[in-house]
Amino acid sequence: MKTHTMMIKSMLMLLVLASCQKSNNIAADKQKDSIQKVAAAPPSDAPRAALRSIVENVTTADGKIYNAKDNTGKTMDCLKIIANPSGGYIGVYHTMINGTFKTNVASSTDLLHWTWIRELAGSNNGGASQPTIAATSTGGFVMVWEQEPNNHLKFSYFNSWTDLQNGAVAKTFEAPHTLSTCAEGTPNIYSASSTSVDVGFHYWSNCDVDRQARGTTTWTSWTASAQPQIDNAILYWGVHGNIGDRDGYLKFQNFNFGLIEGQGAKGDFGTWRCYLYDYQTGNADKLNIHTDGGSQAFANPTITALTVGGQAALVITQFIPSQLAANGEAGELIYYKKL
């Protein structure tokens, strides 16, 4: 009887030990899985989160202005800002005048107050809108915009800041439609020189909705292709309307990012939202932007790295449609954050 009791106790002890070992193994496996998940996180995740915080929080910006206008009272719609190698800042934008879009250039010393220089396009050969600009390594400037009629991309090269101020164009190129028979526009510049320009743009897919594309010109030739991977990153968020304007690359903490607009419902300007696109992962975050008044719709985003008072900073622009705009906030928003 005693021997039998001892055998039962031994068996119970073995069962307890086995149960403890199993629990330890499960805990170890969970810890291993947790470590693997952390290790597998894309390296661009943390920088993207930091950038997202900057773009989303207009209220904590170091400087901002709503419904921006130049010193002549022209609205600065769809403004793109870059640093001027000669000092200060350059901005290109369009203004609707008597039913026609005019593309203008202005200068600033503080990013918030702008002095109009001249109209660059829009009066002579059809409306001109959605301009963007980049400085080249040789002291020149490349501009691209939507040109009417037959909505398409027009490229212009200026040899110097002086020539840009005077509207003295060195050469131009007008891209033929390649992905849509109806419209191709809202350019951003990935890289630019006097010999080649790499741009992003939208094409009016099936003459129905805007979708993403990319093209290159040598100033005499043009190639372009659709960018469905960017579309898919925005469509993921339930976008049913246009996927239009974008800006990038922005190199932030050694990774490339861009801002892209997406329209929740086709034809509804109150459903425009801004997305942060990660060129490393091909994913996008929907941004929850906080303005002082609580505007909800945002379109035509741009973002530029530059310096303010000798300190690295980011300047962001977005167009706030009148639909769902807070009082006094509709129009072009400019804000910047020192890093």
Structural features:
339 residues, single chain, 4 helices, four-stranded antiparallel beta sheet, alpha+beta, 19% helix
> pLDDT under 50 segments (min length 5)?
1-20, 32-38
Strand order of the largest sheet: 1-20-19-18
Number of strands: 20
List the secondary-structure elements in sequence, H or E. Answer: HHEEEEEEEEHEEEEEHEEEEEEE
Textual characterization of the structure:
Helices cover 19% and strands 45% of the residues. The termini are far apart. The longest helix has 39 residues. With 339 residues, it is an alpha+beta fold. The chain has a single domain, classed as Neuraminidase. It has a 4-stranded antiparallel sheet with strand order 1-20-19-18, with no helix packed on it.
Question: Quick gist of this model?
Answer:
This protein is an alpha+beta fold. It has a single domain, classed as 6 Propeller (Neuraminidase). It has 4 helices and 20 strands.
